[in-house]
Known about the structure:
Oligomer: single chain
Radius of gyration: 17 Å
Order of helices and strands: HEHEHEHEHEHEHEHEEEH
Number of domains: 1
CATH architecture: Alpha-Beta Barrel
Amino acid sequence: MLAAHKLFLLIFIRDMRTRIKICCIGSVTEAKMAIEYGADALGLVGKMPNGPGPIPDWLIAEIVRTIHPPVASFLLTSEQSSEEIIYHVKRVDTNTVQVVDELTTGTYGDIRTALPHLKIVQVIHVTGEESIDQAIRISPNVDALLLDSGNPRATIKTLGGTGNVHNWDLSREIVKAVDIPVFLAGGLHANNVRQAIQMVRPFAVDVCNGVRTEGRLDPGKLEAFISAVHSL
């Protein structure tokens, strides 16, 4: 009985590890590299107003066919209507959708009805105290939140990939306030990710620019980032 209890605790402790999402994957080769180094999820960026990493839908679909469980495939979509989000996911067949802008037409329920096995992750761009209220309001409708450093109110929207760190104090308050997993993104790299995890306590961390050199996935930076996360 005691041995079984210890085994349960060991499994529980292992399950508490911080997951890692590598974003802006641009090819089958990059996907394989990220998985080999220990990524739990891969982000594939669709059409965006600006920012790094967008690739055509046909390439996203091609990469997705090489990603197998337990690794998750995330489509980053800038669509703001449930109907267009559904169409976008169907074109590429990811198992998760990351909605990087505000949903303005339709509902999350529409997406769930059309794609019942899809996981929905809503991005909250942490710009101030109002972001906490936004996170609390949206959290009952989605499977997870992702906290990033974009500016959807800018003349040309910035919806991710800024390389900028936002206010982690606010991120920590969001993690405390909601009952669903929270991903932390925005300016993370091997030299600050440990501090970010210790301060915010997210379910997962998400990185794009911090593991790249001249736009390409850098094996050295990737290994350093993942090692820093696992060291905790």
